[in-house]
Specification:
- It is a single chain.
- With 312 residues, the protein is α+β, with helices and mostly antiparallel strands.
- Helix content is 15%, strand content 34%.
- The chain contains three helices and 13 strands.
- Strands 1, 5, 6, 7, 8, 11, 12 and 13 form an eight-stranded mixed beta sheet that branches. Strands 2-3-4-10-9 form a five-stranded antiparallel beta sheet.
- The chain is elongated and about 95 Å long.
């Protein structure tokens, strides 16, 4: 009798154990599969005719290696931006910036490339020179801004996205990384009718960490020729900034966005606020309209990453 009773007691325990294991497996699968149903579909835009397609590439040598040249007591070796940004999209343009002494004509090349996590932006601005607003006690910035109409609907609205690379150029033969600032587009000022900017280090999250859009950067200024050259790595996504930075691309997505460039000299009021500025493909300062319908299109395609990067 005791043996039969033991058998009858064992069977329910096995069934109960099976039910528990089945529930654990079912709940685990539910937690794994459910987010995929709740997540928004990947954005895969069609690339229109005439769009600028940013190629896959990586700076070579890397920005980190370029920064190591700072420790060279004789200054860094020549910064060949064409070599560093080989295999990138190259845009040639000329900026005409009005200054107090007349106009500075600045033949320029802007380089664009991307990896899975970064948009690489390089620039060579020949004959830009020192900021005309400098005085004996103040060194003001040279800067370039890149703006994105992330929704690609022809109208800028907050939050869209932008990055501003600010380089403080001093009157010596070369200037290297450590002298740039990372600025965030934090709002659209309807009175000034232009984006408002804040230094990333001044944007503080509740956990006391700071905002960021630029992962790395290196800049160099050649005083004899007045040429400013730089390369930066901008995050393609930084989820903590989704409320103020709409450029949050996910792997496997393809985005087409309107984009525009601005080159100028900072003013004594701080940041980029001065009238010494020009834009591409045409002047956009002082943003008298939020109309971005005329901006050219920029395509960043993360749908088919290469096994290896060209030239690396």
């Amino acid at each position: 009798m005791e043996s039969n009773t033991s058998k009858h007691q064992i069977i329910p325990k096995r069934i109960l154990l099976f039910i528990i294991l089945f529930l654990i497996l079912g709940i685990s699968l539910f937690l794994i599969v459910l987010p995929k149903f709740l997540s928004p579909p990947l954005r895969i835009d069609s690339i229109p005719s005439g769009a600028y397609v940013v190629p896959w590439m990586q700076p070579n040598p890397s920005i980190s290696i370029l920064k190591q040249y700072q420790s060279n007591p004789y200054g860094p070796p020549p910064f060949n931006i064409d070599s560093v940004m080989a295999n990138s999209l190259k845009l040639s343009m000329t900026f005409n910036i009005t200054v107090s002494s007349g106009s500075r004509v600045i033949p320029s090349t802007v380089y664009l490339g991307h990896g899975e996590d970064y948009l690489y932006v390089g620039g060579e601005f020949r004959g830009m020179g020192l900021n005309p607003n400098n005085d004996a006690n103040t060194t003001l910035a040279n800067y370039m801004s890149i703006f994105f109409d992330v929704e690609d609907n022809g109208t800028l609205s907050f939050p869209e996205a932008g990055s501003q690379i600010v380089v403080f150029v001093y009157n010596d033969t070369w200037t290297t990384n450590g002298l740039y600032e990372d600025l965030l587009w934090t709002d659209y000022d309807n009175v000034l009718q232009r984006p408002s900017w804040i230094r990333a280090e001044d944007y503080t999250f509740p956990d006391a960490t700071h905002g960021i859009t630029l992962a790395n950067g290196f800049a160099e200024y050649d005083n004899p020729t007045g040429t400013l050259t730089f390369v930066i790595a901008r995050y393609l996504r930084y989820p903590a900034l989704d409320k103020i930075n709409a450029l949050q691309m996910q792997p496997g997505e393809r985005w087409v966005m309107g984009f525009a460039l601005e080159l100028g000299f900072g003013g004594s009021g701080g940041g980029s606020m001065s009238n010494n500025v020009d834009g591409w493909p045409r002047t956009i300062y002082p943003f008298l309209s939020s109309d971005s319908s005329w901006w050219p299109k920029l395509a960043i395609d993360l749908t088919n990453p290469p096994a290896t990067y060209p030239g690396v």
